[in-house]
Write a structure and sequence with these properties.
The complex is a heterodimer of chains A (about 120) and B (about 120). Chain A is mainly beta and about 120 residues long. Chain A has no helices and 11 strands. The N and C termini of chain A lie far apart (about 35 Å). With about 120 residues, chain B is mainly beta. In chain B, strands 2, 5, 6, 10, 11 and 12 form a 6-stranded mixed β-sheet that branches. Chain B has a 4-stranded antiparallel β-sheet with strand order 3-9-8-7, with no helix packed on it. A two-stranded antiparallel ribbon of chain B has the order 1-4. Chain B is globular and about 45 Å long. Classes of the chains: A mainly beta (about 120), B mainly beta (about 120).
C-alpha cells in the first residue's frame, strides 16, 4: 500500500495559540485528502474533505474558520487549528486517496493537547 | 446516508478463545467498500481488510476471517485462538467507490481485551 506521513505525532500547545498539522503522501499523488477527529474512547468522525487546489468541504458542525485546511499540492495537506482551546484536544488523523487506488491510506495521527 | 453499527462495545475473552466482532452497515450505494481497522493503544489505524460490494467470498488470513453477507448487510470479523496482542479497538468502516467518496464512515468501535 501507499505511505502517508503525518506530522507531528504529538503536540501540546497553550490555549489561544494555533497549531499546524501536516499530512503528506510520500509515494503517490493524493488528489483527495480527508481529515478525521477522534475524541477519547470515541469513534473517528470526518471533519472535512479536501481536493488539491480547491477549497475544503467541511462536514456539518465543523467550523471552517477554526479548522483551516489547505491542500496546496498533490502531496501535502495541512490542518491548522486556530485559537486552540482545551476542548479541541483530540486525536487528528488524515487519509489520502490517489487515482490509482481504490482506498484511502491513513497517516499515523496527531495527538493534540491544549493546556 | 451511510451508517455502520457495531453493537458490541466491549468484549473480554481469555487467550485462545475464538471471538467474533459484529458489523452491520447501511448504504444506498450499489458499489461500496467495507473495511476493518485495528487501533492499538498507540493510536494509529492498522488496516486489516477491504472488501468490495461485489465480492461476497469469505476471507481467511491466518487467525483472522471475515464473513460478508449482503443479504443481512453484515461484515463480521472472527479472530481464532485469540492472543493478548489482539487487544485493541476494532473499527468497521464503509466507503463509497472512489475519490471524494473514499471518505470512511466508521462504526463506534469494539474494545477487545484478551486476558492471559
Amino acid at each position: 500500500g501507499a505511505v502517508v506521513s503525518q506530522h507531528p505525532s504529538r503536540v501540546i500547545c497553550k490555549s489561544g495559540t494555533s497549531v499546524k498539522i501536516e499530512c503528506r503522501s510520500l509515494d503517490f499523488q493524493a488528489t483527495t485528502m480527508f481529515w478525521y477527529r477522534q475524541f477519547p474512547k470515541q469513534s473517528l468522525m470526518l471533519m472535512a474533505t479536501s481536493n488539491e487546489g480547491s477549497k475544503a468541504t467541511y462536514e456539518q458542525g465543523v467550523e471552517k474558520d477554526k479548522f483551516l485546511i489547505n491542500h496546496a499540492s498533490l502531496t501535502l495537506s495541512t490542518l491548522t487549528v486556530t485559537s486552540a482551546h482545551p476542548e479541541d484536544s483530540s486525536f487528528y488523523i488524515c487519509s489520502a486517496w490517489g487515482l490509482e487506488y481504490t482506498e484511502a491510506f491513513f497517516g499515523q495521527g496527531t495527538r493534540l493537547t491544549v493546556v | 446516508a451511510q451508517k455502520v453499527t457495531q453493537a458490541q462495545t466491549e468484549i473480554s475473552v481469555v487467550e485462545k478463545e475464538d471471538v467474533t466482532l459484529d458489523c452491520v452497515y447501511e448504504t444506498r450505494d450499489t458499489t461500496y467498500y467495507l473495511f476493518w481497522y485495528k487501533q492499538p493503544p498507540s493510536g494509529e489505524l492498522v488496516f486489516l481488510i477491504r472488501r468490495n460490494s461485489f465480492d461476497e467470498q469469505n476471507e481467511i488470513s491466518g487467525r483472522y476471517s471475515w464473513n460478508f453477507q449482503k443479504s443481512t448487510s453484515s461484515f463480521n470479523f472472527t479472530i481464532t485462538a485469540s492472543q493478548v496482542v489482539d487487544s485493541a479497538v476494532y473499527f468497521c468502516a464503509l466507503s463509497g467507490a472512489t475519490g471524494a467518496n473514499s471518505k470512511l464512515t466508521f462504526g463506534k468501535g469494539i474494545t477487545l481485551s484478551v486476558r492471559p
